[in-house]
Specification:
Blueprint: H1 2-23, E1 48-49, H2 52-60, E2 65-68, E3 90-92, E4 97-98, H3 109-123, E5 131-134, H4 140-151, E6 157-160, H5 163-169, E7 175-177
Parallel strand pairs: 1-6, 2-4, 2-5, 5-6
Antiparallel strand pairs: 3-7
Amino acid sequence: MRETLAGLILAAFTFIVSTSAQERPPEPDGYRMEDYRAPVPTTLAGVRVLTTAEAASTWRAKAGVFIDVLPRAPKPQNLPEGTVWRDMPRLNIPGSVWLPDTGYGRLAAATEDYLRRGLVRATAGNTTALVVVYCLADCWMSWNAAKRILAYGYSNVAWYPEGTDGWERAGLALTESQPEPRAGEAAPSPR
């Protein structure tokens, strides 16, 4: 009886471990081009992967620039005239720079320019400054953006894959944020 029970426990443990390993895909060679809300790899070549504790420690020490790349919901084009549109609030890690829509697999030239300019502003042009990239948990947007920032020549890039979901689960404060204005856009007014 004990042997049967031990065998069942071992089989269940093996199934759980193998299932967990299967849920995390390997790093692709290029950028993720679709299905951005799916399990992400545990690694990103050339980039340091941070746990929530490491991200919080970096944040508390003010040792890095935090970049949020969560997409911004677009204003629907077919709203009836006179309809008031309010952006959905984004709660992110305090002091972060929100550069929405910069984590897609392929970026329009204007969006790529927006990301590059946002990075220069956030780091004061220092390509050796620590840049911590995040979004939500299981969000390929942050993985893509961290990979892209590394390709831009930033040498100290960290990826925080748990993003605001992990931050909130740890009981850490989030604050409402507005995206960095794009070229020709006025800064958003405070709510």
